[in-house]
Amino acid sequence: MTALCGYSSERSITVNINASDKNVFGVDNGTFYINDTILGTYTDVFSPIYELYLLKVNSAGSPQVNVFAPIGNFYGAKIWDDNGVLVRDYVPVKRLADNTEGIYDLINNTFQAK
C-alpha cells in the first residue's frame, strides 16, 4: 500500500507500507516520519490558508473525502501546539444515540461526525 504524507504537492512524501501493520505517521517541526523512521525534513514555515483535515483533502476550503481515500483503520491522532501542550487527542467512536461514526476529542470533549 502507498501512503501520502504531507501538506501540499510540493511538501509530500510517498511511502510504501504494509497495509496489515499498524503504522504511526507524524510531522514534528518540519520532520515527516513513519514508525520513528525519518522520511524527510523541511525548513520552510508551514502557514496553512485553509483548515487541516484528518483523512480528507481540503480543496480550497471544501473537504474532499474521495480524494486519496484512506485504506485501513484509524486508531487516533494527537496534535500539540508550539509549546508542546497537547491540544487535540482524537479517538474513533460511534455515537450510540444515532450510530453515527466519527472522532471524539478527549481534550475538548467534542464529537465530529465522519
Protein architecture, described:
With 114 residues, the protein is mainly beta. The chain has two domains: 1-72, no CATH class; 74-114, no CATH class. Helices cover 0% and strands 46% of the residues. The protein contains no helices and eleven strands. It has strands at residues 2-6, 12-16, 25-28, 31-34, 37-41, 57-59, 62-64, 77-80, 86-95, 100-105, 110-113. A four-stranded antiparallel β-sheet has the order 8-9-10-11, with no helix packed on it. A three-stranded antiparallel β-sheet has the order 3-4-5, with no helix packed on it. A two-stranded antiparallel sheet has the order 1-2. It is globular, with a radius of gyration of 15 Å. The chain starts with a strand and ends with a strand. The model has no long low-confidence stretch (mean pLDDT 75).
Rg over C-alpha atoms, rounded to the nearest angstrom: 15 Å
Biggest sheet architecture = 4 strands, antiparallel
Q: Can you list the strand order of the major beta sheet? A: 8-9-10-11
Average the pLDDT over all residues and give the rounded result: 75
Distance between the termini: 23 Å
Individual helix count = 0
Percentage of residues in DSSP E strands:
over 45%
Domain count: 2
Computed structural class: mainly beta
